[in-house]
Write a structure and sequence with these properties.
By secondary structure, this protein is of the alpha/beta class. The chain contains eleven helices and 17 strands. The protein has two domains: 268 residues, Spore Coat Polysaccharide Biosynthesis Protein SpsA, Chain A, CATH 3.90.550.10; 83 residues, no CATH class. It is globular and about 60 Å long.
């Protein structure tokens, strides 16, 4: 069994902590460990370091090697440019198939999970399904509300139980909905949040890419012919320049008819924003979350998140704020609007504020 960890994102919604050279998965946001360190540690009970691949960009490869010294350097796969998840997964599958046609678990690098034992139970059930069939398996998260920031998976009929877990055929995969549609999804009881976690045999996903994404498949064939040769890096660069950026959800999962979902309930969060971090953080009796070793004192203040290591932050008569201080920047925003932090990053890019990125 192999694991592929996708570590190509920037995490711009965690500015000013996340930067071009230090994206979200390289930050110690949820605990004293970086998020990618937690992701690898979580899967190690099932998969040896020699069978773990990490796909990332050139800018972050050295930091990842430092974070994950037990992962062989040849298992840190470099994408010359980000082309979404289909290319990332296809590139990793090429390397795995050369070793063995085995089960391949695909994981995002930057999610938080509270109940690791429950998570591993579902992974093992999904691996058993994939090993015994040509199924494309995904883990759907039981929703606790009508979130519009996630895609949704609609379950169809039950396909029975595997390793004690009920598995369903997937009826449809939906893009991020508007709020009213998200409410309908959740109220129906048939929908799960799309976690971006996938389980399948390496050969199964390669066959699916060949069927549904022929242009990408042709590029992967070029790369495959060059694997292990001196020209490999140059071929990867050439192929990546010409292939389209397509997600595996849109490119394969929405089209295939052999897709199954395992419902998951293990304290999952995509930690997609400062708001999401407030949701999963410990809070005082007034709902204030103090993270990163900050000190806070409050008077008539509630519902805020503060990150300002080494400084005392006093909150007086304010509610529902996010306050984040780094060496060179200070972010203050209303809690509930931290998804818009990306707009600040876009503004800095357009106005020449590269030193803050």
């Amino acid at each position: 069994m192999y694991a592929v960890i996708m570590a190509g994102g920037r995490g711009t919604r965690f500015w000013p902590r996340s930067r071009e050279k230090k994206p979200k998965h390289l930050l110690d946001i949820v605990s004293a460990k970086t998020i990618i360190r937690e992701t690898v540690d979580r899967i190690l009970p099932l998969i040896t370091p020699e069978n773990i691949y990490v796909v990332t960009g050139q800018k972050h490869s050295r930091a990842l090697i430092g974070q994950l010294p037990e992962i062989p350097r040849g298992n840190i796969l470099i994408e010359p440019q980000g082309k979404n998840t289909a290319a990332c997964i296809g590139l990793a599958a090429l390397h795995i198939v050369k070793k063995a046609d085995d089960v391949m678990i695909v994981l995002p690098s930057d999610h938080a999970i509270a109940d690791s034992d429950r998570y591993l139970s579902l992974i093992k059930a999904g691996a058993q399904i994939a090993a015994d069939s040509d199924a494309l398996v995904t883990i759907g998260i039981k929703p606790n509300g009508p979130q519009t920031g996630f895609g949704y998976i609609e379950r169809g009929e039950s396909a029975g139980r595997v390793a004690g877990e009920e598995v369903f055929r997937v009826q449809s995969i939906r893009e991020k909905p508007q709020y009213e549609q998200a409410r309908e999804f959740v109220a129906s009881g048939r929908f799960y949040w799309n976690s971006g976690m996938f389980i399948w045999k390496a050969s199964t996903i390669m066959q699916s890419i060949g069927k549904w994404l022929p242009a990408l498949n042709e590029g992967l064939r070029e790369i495959n012919a060059a694997l292990g040769l001196p020209a490999e890096a140059a071929v990867v660069r050439r192929v990546y320049r010409k292939i389209a950026a397509v997600s595996i959800d849109y490119g394969v999962m929405e089209k295939a008819d052999n897709v199954f979902v395992l419902p998951g309930d293990f304290g999952w969060s995509d930690v997609g924003s400062w708001d999401a971090l407030w949701e999963i953080s410990a809070k005082d009796e007034n709902g204030n979350a103090n993270i990163g070793g900050s000190e806070i004192t409050v008077a008539d203040s509630a519902g805020s998140l503060v990150y300002s290591p080494g400084k005392l932050v006093a909150l007086v008569g304010v509610h529902d704020l996010i306050v984040v201080e780094t060496k060179d920047a200070l972010l203050i925003c209303r809690r509930g609007q931290s998804q818009d932090v990306k707009k600040i990053v876009d503004t800095l890019e357009s106005q020449g504020g590269k030193k803050y990125l």
